[in-house]
Amino acid sequence: MESVYSKRIRAGKRRTYFFDVRATRGNDYFLTITESRKRFNEDGYDRHKIFLYKEDFNKFIKALGEAIDYVKTELMPNFDFDAFNHDYSETQEDVAEEIIVSEVVVSEVVTNNKPSTDGVEEVDKW
Predict the structure, then answer these.
(1) pTM (2 decimals)?
(2) What is d(CA 6, CA 118) in angstroms, rounded to the nearest whole number?
(3) What is the pLDDT of residues 39-96, one digit of tens each?
(4) Which of 21, 25, 53, 20 is CA-nearest to residue 35?
(5) Residue 91 Cα distances to 30, 70, 88, 94, 95, angstroms
(6) Are the beta carbons of 113 and 55 closer than 8 angstroms?
(7) Rg (CA), the chain
(8) What is the spatial distance between Cα 21 and Cα 5, in angstroms, rounded to a whole number?
(9) For a disulfide at 38, which of 14, 57, 102, 119, Cβ 3.0-4.6 Å?
């Protein structure tokens, strides 16, 4: 898999989100969204990943926008969401460690011009 674009969002001192656009061998593209959380009592990170394919982009954006709008307008209309628009300072060690984590996370195998879906059936059972 070839990474063609990457965006990292620091969300607190222990949480980081990665948005990575990847290319398959057939020059098709998909998005991976990774949440990386630093473990409290151990070294290392817990990571959770979502694969988002081009045919689902519009549905995903629409559903995400609706869910966020519902929270902002119906559940928490008086909350100041803009108060969280600050960046967190990072040490060079934190940055280097997060970059390594983001590169290690991308270990999925691409076959037939699409990312592997091993384990998808198990996730669907949840």
Answers:
(1) 0.62
(2) 24
(3) 877 778 889 999 999 999 999 999 999 999 999 999 999 999 888 776 555 555 555 5
(4) 20
(5) 31, 36, 10, 5, 6
(6) no
(7) 17
(8) 5
(9) 14
